[in-house]
């Protein structure tokens, strides 16, 4: 199958599960409403359910996630089929082949634990359901480099790379796609984005909520596996990569993969891990858990373009705001002509969530006598509509066969190589107060490149960091010490 061919049936494994409830049903409704899902929709799970129960579940999912569009929901019910069966039982896949009818290019969405990918892909092949098909798999893809490589080998026994769609929902976000468009649809930014002009880069992904009932999942991953190995490295690759030769999926992914290859493997001495106080009281979390809910990491890109530019990333749960922003600080002018001009006032900031906003920081003169200035932030672009929901966008692209917004095998493996040495307890773990900006130890990581600039979820962003780690109570010892 060529990747440009459109799918003619959609199968989702794990139909009664959490991901289907939170993301897949709303995406299906959106696609049906836009007339993009005129094909059989088949849910597979082992729950002892009936089709009517799955339809009820779909309605409940939509009521909770965006509302029910009755016309689209009626179409969903008419097209939806349900196969209840064990993933290790060949009869489940015989029933699936029968349900697919004349479909030649089914899309199989594996919304199931990675341990089931092997048995399910083998059973798809044995039953004839893999013929002409493609699969969609979720992040995190593997647990570390070795397991990601093993998973790729397992999947490739049945599906070629052009038929594998690895979801990283950050790539489905309007703001993240805008990063690519902004950089390469304009000429003026490119010459500025290099070590000649850039002093430092900061990327922060802050969330006010904790693990929100996902203790079991989080205990297995922690913040670095959950969002750094994938979301943060995808954002960095789009921000730092060289221009792709074309806008086609392989050219874009070639550039992103080349950038990731130049990112130095993280050193535990340049990583600060944190855990919010109270995490170990969350359901399904081990009492002495050493899992991080926060990480601050210094990246280096060993390339002519980025050598020597510190790239600092911070992610965390139970922080003061929910917002993701990346700030590129430009070097100050070679001479300070005006005493009050702030050297760190020149920056390009991209607010990625919530909403999309691009701003430029600069020193401007304050009206009145004398040459006195202030730091200003110029809004270059602001978008209130957040575009299509990421899952709707990505599922639509996978159905159409467009691989651009999906992670390729080499990108995923490079990303694991980068974080490999700081997984688990390689770096000490520090406690932090919920609602603070994380452990104060993260300040030291920046040294003279600090302080951290905190993203502001309100439009307009902020140049001055609100009181953060410096005013939080200092913690004397690492968690578990
Ligand atoms: C998910 C992580 O991939 O991304 C979550 O598992 C995180 O822990 C979420 O909260 C953030 O995504 P978004 O779209 O809400 O910014």
Condensed summary:
With 481 residues, this protein is of the alpha/beta class. It has helices at 18-33, 51-64, 70-79, 90-100, 117-127, 145-156, 174-185, 215-240, 249-262, 390-400, 409-419, 441-446; strands at residues 9-13, 41-45, 80-84, 106-110, 134-137, 164-166, 198-206, 271-276, 294-299, 311-316, 323-330, 347-353, 356-365, 373-383, 429-432. It has 12 helices and 15 strands.
Keywords:
single chain, alpha/beta, Rossmann fold, Dihydrodipicolinate Reductase, domain 2, 6-stranded parallel sheet, binds 6-O-phosphono-beta-D-glucopyranose
Question: How is the secondary structure organized here?
Answer:
Blueprint: E1 9-13, H1 18-33, E2 41-45, H2 51-64, H3 70-79, E3 80-84, H4 90-100, E4 106-110, H5 117-127, E5 134-137, H6 145-156, E6 164-166, H7 174-185, E7 198-206, H8 215-240, H9 249-262, E8 271-276, E9 294-299, E10 311-316, E11 323-330, E12 347-353, E13 356-365, E14 373-383, H10 390-400, H11 409-419, E15 429-432, H12 441-446
Parallel strand pairs: 1-2, 1-4, 2-3, 4-5, 5-6, 7-10, 8-15
Antiparallel strand pairs: 7-11, 8-9, 9-10, 11-12, 12-13, 13-14
The chain binds 6-O-phosphono-beta-D-glucopyranose.
6-O-phosphono-beta-D-glucopyranose is lined by residues 169, 207, 226-227, 353.
Strand content is 15-25%
Bound molecules: 6-O-phosphono-beta-D-glucopyranose
Overall tally of structural domains:
2
Quantity of strands, as a count = 15
CATH hierarchy: architecture of the largest domain: 2-Layer Sandwich
What percent of the residues sit in helical stretches (DSSP H or I)? 25-40%
Q: Order of strands across the widest beta sheet?
A: 14-13-12-11-7-10-9-8-15
- The rough form would be described as globular
Largest sheet: 9 strands, mixed
Task: Outline the low-pLDDT stretches.
Answer: 459-477
Structural class: alpha/beta
How much is the radius of gyration in Å?
Answer: 24 Å
């Amino acid at each position: 199958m060529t990747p440009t061919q459109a799918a003619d049936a959609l199968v989702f494994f794990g139909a009664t599960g959490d991901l289907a409830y939170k993301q897949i049903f709303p995406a299906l409704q959106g696609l049906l409403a836009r007339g993009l899902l005129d094909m059989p929709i088949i849910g597979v799970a082992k729950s002892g359910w009936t089709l009517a129960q799955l339809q009820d579940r779909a309605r409940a999912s939509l009521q909770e996630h965006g509302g029910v569009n009755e016309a689209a929901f009626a179409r969903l019910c008419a097209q939806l089929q349900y196969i209840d069966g064990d993933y290790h039982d060949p009869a489940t896949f015989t029933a699936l082949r029968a349900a697919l009818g004349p479909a030649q290019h089914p899309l199989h969405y594996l919304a199931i634990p990675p341990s089931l990918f092997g048995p399910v892909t083998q059973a798809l092949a044995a039953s004839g359901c893999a013929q002409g098909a493609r699969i969609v798999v979720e992040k995190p893809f593997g647990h570390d480099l070795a397991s990601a490589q093993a998973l790729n080998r397992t999947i490739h026994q049945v599906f070629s790379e052009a038929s594998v769609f690895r979801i990283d929902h950050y790539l489905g976000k309007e703001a993240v796609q805008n990063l690519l468009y902004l950089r390469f649809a304009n000429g003026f930014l490119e010459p500025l984005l290099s070590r000649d002009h850039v002093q430092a880069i900061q990327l922060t992904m802050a969330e006010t909520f904790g693990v929100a009932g996902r203790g079991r999942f989080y205990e297995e991953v922690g913040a670095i596996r959950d969002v750094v190995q994938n979301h943060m490295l995808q954002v960095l690759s789009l921000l730092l990569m060289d221009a792709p030769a074309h806008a086609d999926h392989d050219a874009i992914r070639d550039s992103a993969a080349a950038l990731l290859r130049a990112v130095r493997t993280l050193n535990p001495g340049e990583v600060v891990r944190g855990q919010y106080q109270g995490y170990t009281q969350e359901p399904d979390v081990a009492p002495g858990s050493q899992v991080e809910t926060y990480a601050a990491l210094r990246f280096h890109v060993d390339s002519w373009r980025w050598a020597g530019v510190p790239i600092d990333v911070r992610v965390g749960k139970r922080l003061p705001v929910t917002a993701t922003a990346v700030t590129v600080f430009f070097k100050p002018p070679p001479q300070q002509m005006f005493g009050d001009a702030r050297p760190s006032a020149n920056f390009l900031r991209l607010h990625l969530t919530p909403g999309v906003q691009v701003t430029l920081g600069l020193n401007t003169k304050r009206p009145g006598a004398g040459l006195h200035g202030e730091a200003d932030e110029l809004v270059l672009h602001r978008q209130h509509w957040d575009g299509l929901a990421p899952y709707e966008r990505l599922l639509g692209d996978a159905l159409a066969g467009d691989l651009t917004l999906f992670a390729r095998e080499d990108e995923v493996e490079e990303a694991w190589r980068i974080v490999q040495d700081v997984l688990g307890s390689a770096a000490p773990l520090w406690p932090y107060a919920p609602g603070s900006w994380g452990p104060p130890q993260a300040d030291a990581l920046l040294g003279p490149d600090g302080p951290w600039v905190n993203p502001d979820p309100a439009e307009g962003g902020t140049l001055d960091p609100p009181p953060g780690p410096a005013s939080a109570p200092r913690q004397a010892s690492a968690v578990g010490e």
